């Protein structure tokens, strides 16, 4: 009788462990790499005029940092797993190039993984995030407050063959800066990475093609659009358009 009882207990433990493994959550990391078309870009490439955009402008990159938020997993049953939080990817200082949320993801096949470039309007709250405040990533109240989505800065060779600065800063598009700003169009956007299967701890290796910000559907002329772009809602909407194909899922491991 004791042997039978031990066998039943052992079977129960085995089944319990098997069930637990099926429901186990796995750690997910988003690793962000950067390219200029087919050429890898790191901060070692900064501060030198070595890139040429689709308009033919020669330029450098001196600073690149951007926010991603609201990581989401969708499965074939129509269920959604949403992970709160955000990550400031700082390419200039090679900081936060990987984002590993504390929440785990259950094993399974997911029809799409996505994140938000920037913040949704509901979460783009003025002065709400202490780390972004200390990083000087905020947007002035007269332009709606909240935070930048991206700061991309550098120099380019202008039509007079001189070096000139540019500030390609993406924010929520704003009109009528001042006491009562208005917002003609949302300019945060969802980045869809596609289908992913999770059966172990997983790295999602994501690439940003920096050249695409200047490429299509709007060929960006830095002689015409180089600074004071934050209060320019037309420029912000052009950035939104160009950003739709900036990110891609390079690999999974």
From TrEMBL:
Residues 27-224 form the Copper-binding protein MbnP-like domain. It comes from the Bacteria. Keywords: Signal. The keyword Coiled coil does not apply. Residues 1-21 form the signal peptide. The keyword Signal applies. This is Copper-binding protein MbnP-like domain-containing protein. It comes from Seonamhaeicola marinus. The lineage of its organism: Bacteria, Pseudomonadati, Bacteroidota, Flavobacteriia, Flavobacteriales.
């Amino acid at each position: 009788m004791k042997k039978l009882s031990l066998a039943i207990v052992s079977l129960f433990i085995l089944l319990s462990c098997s069930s637990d493994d099926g429901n186990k959550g796995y750690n997910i990391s988003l690793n962000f790499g950067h390219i200029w078309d087919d050429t890898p870009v790191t901060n070692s490439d900064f501060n030198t005029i070595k890139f040429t955009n689709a308009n033919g402008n020669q330029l450098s990159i001196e600073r690149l940092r951007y926010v991603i938020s609201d990581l989401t997993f969708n499965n074939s049953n129509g269920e959604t797993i949403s992970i709160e939080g955000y990550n400031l990817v700082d390419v200039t200082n090679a900081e936060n190039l990987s984002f590993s949320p504390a929440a785990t993801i259950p094993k399974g096949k997911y029809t799409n993984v996505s994140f938000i470039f920037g913040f949704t309007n509901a979460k783009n709250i003025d002065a709400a995030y202490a780390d972004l405040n200390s990083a000087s990533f905020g947007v002035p109240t007269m332009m709606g407050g909240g935070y930048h989505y991206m700061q991309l800065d550098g120099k380019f060779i202008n039509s007079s063959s001189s070096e000139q600065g540019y500030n390609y800063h993406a924010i929520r598009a704003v009109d009528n800066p001042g006491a009562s700003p208005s917002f003609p169009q949302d300019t945060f956007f969802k980045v869809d990475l596609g289908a992913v299967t999770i059966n172990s701890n997983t790295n999602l290796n994501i690439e940003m093609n920096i050249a695409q910000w200047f490429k299509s559907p709007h060929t960006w002329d830095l002689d015409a659009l180089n600074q004071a772009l934050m209060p320019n809602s037309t420029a912000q909407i052009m950035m939104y358009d160009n950003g739709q194909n900036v990110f891609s899922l390079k690999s999974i491991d």
